[in-house]
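A favour between colleagues. Tell me how you read the following sequence-structure pair.

===
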Amino acid sequence: MKKEARLLKEKSLSSLTLSVEHFNRPWDTGRTDAVLMLLDHSFEMLLKAAILHRGGRIRDPGEKNTIGFDQCVRRALSTDVIQFLTEEQALTLQSINGLRDAAQHHLVDISEGHLYLQAQSGITLYRDLLKLVFQEELRDVLPDRVLPIATIAPLDPIALFTEEIQEVARLLQPGKRRRAEAAARLRALSIVDGAMQGEKLQPSEAALRRLGVQIGSGTTSLDALFPGIAAVRFTTEGVGPRINLRIVKKEGIPVALVPEGSADSSVVAVRRVAELDYYNLRFNSLVSKLGITTNQATALITLLGIKDDEDCAKLFFNTWCYSQKTLERMKKALEEKSVEAWWIEYRSRQAG
């Protein structure tokens, strides 16, 4: 093994060991953030070690710095000679990396059950990659004193996300005045959901407020609120230190490689084919079919509240897609009033 790869692997194991240690600590000070940040760091070091071991490069020609987390995932997934990741494994990495970003740069509130899912699925993936690339068993390279992440796995891990939604609903009840806590809980769920759908950006405050309004009004369906999470399942096997927990896509829902260079996107995404068939119009298609300008189309979409209606629009890979219902609503609006009148109303609201 190349010396650089060996040193990176050793550094990776150090971070993994510290992540396990923090998970099992009997006090909570900084525990969640430490687990997520150290677990994420352990994977970046492991990916770089594995790429080097497979004959790849972690520093592009002329660059002083090594490649980042996303580029490591992409090379490990899509480079023929190097390839050692699957699309579903990449989803696990994106989820951990997104939560780490929130933990390091802002606020994230993650329940004990949710933290367990991330940590145990991470340990399982680490064990799989270490054996596949380096032909080493995780139990042989960790100190004997290190305990497993947990001794039992939840019987239904996906149910934990439903419980999280119910907890948010409780925090949003009238008189609770705990909206900041609800937003922190929703941020964790939204990050995982976005990671499944190939979204790199952290959720905006406006997006979290919209989710809060939906939950406060009685919407608790995981599929309606977090379609990315609903498109996968968590499988468990084994007991004690041999517990394995993996993310697996649901049957009929493919995992797609997002083209390199796509703005604000991660490496892979679950793609709900039926939904993309339904939301089959893009912004430029609406402009072309209606024979109006892009500014006029933006005005209509805003005034008609198109993006607030799930029957009309949905965000995929940071791109708004529209259904035929959107086209019908906009055509009807132009029959009721001229496009010039709509534009004047839009400009008036913007000015106000």
